[in-house]
């Protein structure tokens, strides 16, 4: 059953490519952007204040899993992404509880990634689809000459730990805020750009982490400031976007940000700001070559206008934390 369900994910890419619906931008917000479950979280965002000043981060840590081929491809200017598969290793019976085990989960990730690539999906989508399978750990186990299927659900797979603590907030002073967290060896920090995936959808959304916290019931939450792809703004664009260009949300209203489960994050992405704003550290040619996306314009969700002006604050966050920072 597990094998069938996962393999169906690969097969769906044979008919995945389809015309996009001509939606108005407010409809796009409601349908595509990840909405908070009001039953799970009823706090107003004003209650999520921290007793700590925003401080500049030192930058992102490089993944300890980068292979020689990965680093070499990046150096040659190729766009590359990495999916780390935390699969089992084969152990002799005396060393393992379940006996000798083979590797099955990795095969599924390879098949889904290949199917997504063959269907013509962008690199970000291929990465997101492969990452979904990391929520499921499947292997075949052999003990006493009898093959058995062993399965662990999504909560048993992704290795998670919190990073540095920040302030305490909330109406009852029972919300713990954090500056970072780690999933499967990768560190995610405030103001990182990330991919988020909504269940049963194939294209990941792009946003910036502007707040991280854990609720009293131990549910992990992130506040995400959104980026928009050009196809989401077709009714408002008056020129042709640059290659890899996306637009930072600004203003007030629906579509600016959402509060999401931390588990919706499926990976990092590199978003470089090319604005000539004096607050923005100008990127090098190498930075631009390695960028997954660039932005220099904003989209005001209230007035539905596109501008090169970047407000001093967006969702209460100073612009310097949303632009390129020196030494990043």
From TrEMBL:
Pfam families: BAH (PF01426), Dak1 (PF02733). GO terms for biological process: glycerol metabolic process. GO terms for molecular function: chromatin binding; glycerone kinase activity; RNA binding. Residues 1-328 form the DhaK domain. Residues 186-310 form the BAH domain. Residues 42-64 have a biased composition (Acidic residues). Transmembrane segments: none annotated. Residues 39-67 are annotated as: Disordered. This is BAH domain-containing protein. It comes from Zingiber officinale (Ginger). The lineage of its organism: Eukaryota, Viridiplantae, Streptophyta, Embryophyta, Tracheophyta.
């Amino acid at each position: 059953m597990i094998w069938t369900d996962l393999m169906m994910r690969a097969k769906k890419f044979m008919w995945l490519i389809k015309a996009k619906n001509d939606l108005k931008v407010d409809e796009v917000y409601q349908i595509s952007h990840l909405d908070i479950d009001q039953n799970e979280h009823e706090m107003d965002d004003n209650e999520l204040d921290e007793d700590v000043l925003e401080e500049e981060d030192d930058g992102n840590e490089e993944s300890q899993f980068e292979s020689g081929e990965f680093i070499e491809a990046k150096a040659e200017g190729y766009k590359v992404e990495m999916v780390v598969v935390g699969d089992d290793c084969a152990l002799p019976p005396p060393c393992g509880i379940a006996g000798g085990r083979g590797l099955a989960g990795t095969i599924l990730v390879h098949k889904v990634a290949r199917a997504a690539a063959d269907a013509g999906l962008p690199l970000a989508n291929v990465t997101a689809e492969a990452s979904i399978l990391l929520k499921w750990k499947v292997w075949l186990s052999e003990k006493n000459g009898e093959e058995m299927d062993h399965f662990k659900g999504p909560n048993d797979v992704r290795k998670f730990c919190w990073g540095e603590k920040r302030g305490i907030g909330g109406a009852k002073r029972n919300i713990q805020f954090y500056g970072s967290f780690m999933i499967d060896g990768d560190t995610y920090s405030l103001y990182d750009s990330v991919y988020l995936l909504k269940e049963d959808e194939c294209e990941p959304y792009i946003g910036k982490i502007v707040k991280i916290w854990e609720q009293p019931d131990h549910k992990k939450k992130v506040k995400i400031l959104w980026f928009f792809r050009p196809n989401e703004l077709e009714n408002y664009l008056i020129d042709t976007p640059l290659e890899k260009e996306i637009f930072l949300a600004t203003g007030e209203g629906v579509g600016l940000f959402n509060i999401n489960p931390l588990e919706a994050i499926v990976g990092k992405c590199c978003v470089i700001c090319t604005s000539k704003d004096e607050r923005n550290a100008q990127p090098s040619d190498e930075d631009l070559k390695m960028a997954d996306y660039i932005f220099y314009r904003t989209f005001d969700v209230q007035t539905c206008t596109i501008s090169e002006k970047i407000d001093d604050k967006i969702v209460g966050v100073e612009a310097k934390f949303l632009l390129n920072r020196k030494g990043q």
